[in-house]
């Protein structure tokens, strides 16, 4: 018997850190903050450049067409983003669902586009930025 099982009927989509993004948390380690989730980007939405200051990210695209820097990522694509590395903006050309894992707490920090160094900023340091903790 598996020590942990997540059944779809027991899980719900929750609002994500940006408009057009929903998260379905499948498992979260209480003390370490690690999280495995389904992530949905609604078609036509753009997620601005950001970092995850507290965790590395792995995502496997299950369906949809996700574009970043002119490259389309479709079903069957796996990508990895190290903790603190800028990525995005992401554009959902069609609805995208990915299986996504963070090896620490899910936090999202905006990148100030006007900052030549593309430094990650907390909201109080950058106009129009956000800091999300899931």
Textual characterization of the structure:
- This protein has 134 residues and is an all-beta fold.
- The chain has a domain at 14-104: Sandwich (Jelly Rolls).
- 0% of the residues lie in helices and 43% in strands.
- It is built from no helices and 13 strands.
- The strands form three sheets. Strands 1-2-3-11-6-9 form a six-stranded antiparallel beta sheet, with no helix packed on it. It has a four-stranded antiparallel beta sheet with strand order 4-10-7-8, with no helix packed on it.
- The chain is globular and about 45 Å long.
- The protein starts with 13 loop residues before the first strand and ends with a strand.
- Residues 114-125 and 127-131 have low confidence and may be disordered.
Protein topology:
Blueprint lengths: L13 E2 L5 E8 L6 E7 L4 E2 L2 E2 L5 E7 L1 E4 L2 E4 L3 E4 L8 E3 L3 E7 L4 E4 L20 E3 L1
Antiparallel strand pairs: 1-2, 2-3, 3-11, 4-10, 5-12, 6-9, 6-11, 7-8, 7-10, 12-13
Secondary structure category: mainly beta
What's the total number of strands? 13
Compute the separation of the termini in Å. Answer: 29 Å
CATH architecture of the domain at 14-104: Sandwich
Mean pLDDT: 85
CATH topology of the domain at 14-104: Jelly Rolls
Low-confidence stretches: 114-125, 127-131
- The gyration radius over C-alpha positions equals 15 Å
**What can be said about the biggest beta sheet?**
6 strands, antiparallel
What shape does the CA trace take?
Answer: globular
Q: How many distinct helices?
A: 0
Percentage of residues assigned to helices: under 10%
- What is the ordering of alpha helices and beta strands? EEEEEEEEEEEEE
CATH homologous superfamily classification of the domain at 14-104: Jelly Rolls
Strand content: 35-45%
Sheet with the most strands: spatial strand order: 1-2-3-11-6-9
What is the top-level CATH class of the domain at 14-104?
A: Mainly Beta
